Amino acid sequence: MTGAWAACLLVSFLLPSCLPTPHRGRHHPPEPHAEAYHMSRDPFDPHRDSEEFRRDAPDDKREFTRRESEDDPMVVQTKKGKVRGISLTAATGKKVDAWLGIPYAQKPLGNLRFRHPRPGDKWDGILNTTTQPNSCVQIIDTVFGDFSGATMWNPNTPLSEDCLYVNVVVPKPRPTGAAVMVWVFGGGFYSGTNTLEVYDHNILVSEENIILVSMQYRVASLGFLYFGTPDVPGNAGMFDQMMALQWVHDNIAAFGGNPNNITLFGESAGAVSVSLHLLSPLSRNLFSQAIMESGSATAPWAIISREESLLRGLRLAEAVGCPHERHEVSAAIDCLKKKDPVDLVNNEWGTLGICEFPFVPVIDGAFLDESPSRALANKNFKKTNILMGSNTEEGYYFIIYYLTELFRKEENVYVNRQEFLRAVTELNPYFNSISRQAIVFEYTDWLNPDDPVSNRDSLDKMVGDYHFTCNVNEFAHRYAETGSTVYMYYYRHRTVANPWPSWTGVMHADEINYVFGEPLNPTKSYTAQEVDLSKRIMRYWANFAKTGNPSQSPNGVWTPTFWPPHTAFGREYLTLDVNSTATGRGPRLKQCAFWKKYLPQLQQQTRTGYADITATLVVAKSRRQNVAKPPSDDEDIHRARSIPIPVPAPVVIFSEPLVLFQMTSRTSRLARTAPTGRARCDGRRAALPACWWCRRWRRSERGPSNAQEDPPRGVPLKRIRN
């Protein structure tokens, strides 16, 4: 008997050392390269801990732990285990309950890198979810130093591949059957995080009595690399979002939400994601309705062909020293899985066109089974209420990053006629010379063709119409044609304290602050009119989430301003501005008819082959295989972007370089040069940090991938937010 007691005491003494420590929760210990992940201004502790039941503890201790979890209102039972949240106070003084960093999938580490997410494991005890989760690995914007207008989009929590978590914020007192809003952040599919200050959930939740959920999803090559294999199937970031939506659908009732009333909303790439979920046969039934801010699946940057995505993956492999030939895909995958994730995202950036991003969704045959344009034409999408819109100056943000020599944020910008003509060429590399002349004609103020202000503003409208506004309009119109209820807005207010120069107007993403209620924060420099505008927008968004109508609340109370539905005939929209609640038709119907109807036909009828479009690109010696004609879904992508489809016949592999270019310092214009064997990248930031992409006919749709160049080393990265 004495021996048995001694054994029990020995077990009691040893067991505690086996229990989890605070550094062994749902985050792995820092990896060898983890120092690169941590940002100096991070206010959060990334580590979690879980409270395990001690099986050897006395009965009263076990009962106390269970009783504590039952009595603690911050402990919620999910399908995978219990989570403990935290009570927070919004800037307005109102209380909310928050669960920050709940895992919704397994950690995508090791062999799970690039793969679709897998369901998470169950856990014992209570998981503390009281601090913000990691942000997924991505590049950091350093182009403008510590300028707040740019750094506000940089991640504010440590970067890690271990990042698949959701945040849940609930009003106090805890509701029952509350409407749920699920936020999808933007960032061009290569950046972004749900922890940004501008996305602070507390004010919107406490003011509108809704439950707000946001997710982290993988971005850049870690989320959207595609090789068409089980190991790298593509669209991993979209499957992350879908698994997070499934988690919300399965668990939100435990937090007081209604799983049958989930509104998915996002901005820019987040809005593209939302629209893709409306089209996807896999995820369309996981939510009820959708809000899309400045983005849709029909945008020219929203998806790329499988062939182009595969080639970009091989170029990334080449950049980081991995096998990179077409027949070496398996070896390339094995090598890429072993590379430091920071090296991957730092070497992937390269693009010719404005608003183009290295790795984005593809039509994979699983998440997406046809192109967005075809799905819309076939009415193959979720039939539900949608709300969407755009801002008046969508283009400036991207132009400032792309044409840095011409558009300097520190000074007033004036664009003369010659600069305007050169900029039109640079900003529209896919179009032939005749189509570019049509663009010049459409966006010239013929009353003042030499007016430098009109020329500057026309460039903004040109980029904004083509990449944002007209695609939002097209998506809304297609929905309205089916009889679905659609609401459209046009956001026109420029924040008084906006850090960007006044000539930038109402930029891309400027409405986000008002959607999340930041003007109600008394520590911020907003005017009383801006506070009222934010209250109006929050009420519209919340009403839509609750009833499907932004003008009507569940108790039948109507907003002072009626928001008319957007019909296929009337094309109505509501102006969102401090001094206006006017309605209109469009917006920008004439310009969008130009982009969507006239220009594609002109491009098709005047196409003379690749020569007139790709004269400034590189053809050089290469061992790479020819590009095959893309399948039919990829043809839809080409047509939507007015890109010629490669001919099926083999393309000649030249033994000597034929055409080379160099980037000049003035607006980084492309200039024809004599064959020199190697091109040079002389421009500043506008010359693109990874211009080695340019030197290989990067766009497989327009010709062969024939240049073989080493990527430049030590070139600063630029960042364009979308």
TrEMBL record:
Residues 22-74, 702-722 are annotated as: Disordered. InterPro entries: AB_hydrolase_fold (IPR029058), AChE-related_enzymes (IPR050654), CarbesteraseB (IPR002018), Carboxylesterase_B_AS (IPR019826), Carboxylesterase_B_CS (IPR019819), Cholinesterase (IPR000997). Residues 74-595 form the Carboxylesterase type B domain. One of its GO terms (cellular component) is extracellular space. It is an enzyme of class 3 (hydrolase). The keyword Signal applies. Its main location: other. Keywords: Disulfide bond, Glycoprotein, Hydrolase, Neurotransmitter degradation, Serine esterase, Signal, Synapse. The active site is at residues 268, 394, 508. It catalyses: acetylcholine + H2O = choline + acetate + H(+). It holds the Pfam family COesterase. The keyword Disulfide bond applies. It is found in: Synapse. GO terms for biological process: acetylcholine catabolic process; choline metabolic process. GO terms for molecular function: acetylcholinesterase activity. SUPFAM superfamilies: alpha/beta-Hydrolases (SSF53474). It comes from the Eukaryota. Residues 1-20 form the signal peptide. Its EC number is 3.1.1.7. Residues 28-69 have a biased composition (Basic and acidic residues). Rapidly hydrolyzes choline released into the synapse. Belongs to the type-B carboxylesterase/lipase family. This is Acetylcholinesterase.
